[in-house]
Amino acid sequence: NVQKAQAARERNQKKMGKTDEERRAAAAKAKADSTAFMCALCRQTFMVNAKPPVLYLHVTSKHEPGTDPASCFASLKDYDPNDPKGEKKAAAEKAAAAQKAKKSKKKKDDGLNDLLSAGLAAGKKKKK
User: Fold this and answer.
1) How confident is the model at residue 103, as a pLDDT?
2) Is 8 strand, coil or helix?
3) Cα Dmax for the chain
4) For the chain, where are the E strands, in sequence order?
């Protein structure tokens, strides 16, 4: 009987829905999410799930041509409209890192060769 009463209590709580605290917390979260991005020029708000291409579209369509996107949204500071997903930038960084690795490897090899030849020269001098 105790289990039946407990199950009935749980079912009734589910039917009643959210408490006042839960409702207030949900409303506050929804309000914060709806104003996650705000244009600094016209104060239009965008939801938290708005992607940079949507924000960039707002800048190009609602404001004068030549308006800097970073002046509207701080998150568009390094945004490239020709590369919306950032794939080209990532590939360029990867290539730069590979070039740097090659150069540092060559320097190490040159350094080893210099040390080896210096060691050989020093060894020859000692034998004399």
Assistant:
1) 65
2) helix
3) 104
4) 37-38, 45-46
